């Protein structure tokens, strides 16, 4: 009777048992599987790069070719120009594209071209970068085409327990609202006009109870949406961080969302995976799902994105979003708000190819 070898595999939380006639066959397949799932030793071994090189008929060991593939191509720069034009930015009087991050010399996690108010100089941006965590300065990522309100994102200010201030940072944040006032869309112009036509904002406000855009011509009050809780934001001062003080940022309002940090989200997701991988118990499954707090995290995320949408769409207010370091929670809120606000971001092409058009 031949020897029978057994190999146990775990796939999608299920145990798969494979039988082989000999131990040698079992050992050979184990080696093949280990090679298939092993981490690549070199960048060139990644399937995407190897396949691209194969399509071009080149050598997969050509290091220069792979480095070229990792650099942003003309399509990335062209996409920025298309987006700026599509959203109707006034690049003469209100906004400009700064090249201060060329070759990622200012912030390694930001794109090379940044959209800022036209009167903000690169020297002022350098000063702001020294005051923001990971040098992630406030930059514009979206503009409402009808009322001119924008969404900006950044990281926390480095106030610390000493209560440090940065006049350039305060100037940049308040300048965002001023630039929106100068680059108001057609809806805002109709609201300020004397004509008898009613605006869309009046209609929206009558249904939602939200105030219409200010018809006096004054800059709208900028909403600073901090994804953290107030307690967490203050606690970050012990590590050199903090949050904006409304006293130093005139015409701004700070709102805290109380979203959990990445560590709590990771633990919640692991608990969710555990619940989903077990045999469901109809009597306790919903309570087990609730105990993971995953639905609560999703609820807070949706609430934050809805607040951004309400401020931009119904009130015509510019919004600045950040958390501690300006990633994880910040791009999630901004990206979801853009999907809710603009049908352009709900197309298949955009959702597959683009994460965030102006800032990654």
Automatic annotation (TrEMBL):
Residues 74-349 form the Myotubularin phosphatase domain. It comes from the Eukaryota. One of its GO terms (biological process) is phosphatidylinositol dephosphorylation. SUPFAM superfamilies: (Phosphotyrosine protein) phosphatases II. Its main location: membrane. Substrate binds at residues 236-239, 261-262, 323-329. GO terms for cellular component: cytoplasm; endomembrane system; membrane. Residues 292-360 form the Tyrosine specific protein phosphatases domain. It is found in: Endomembrane system. This is Myotubularin phosphatase domain-containing protein. The gene is mtmr4.
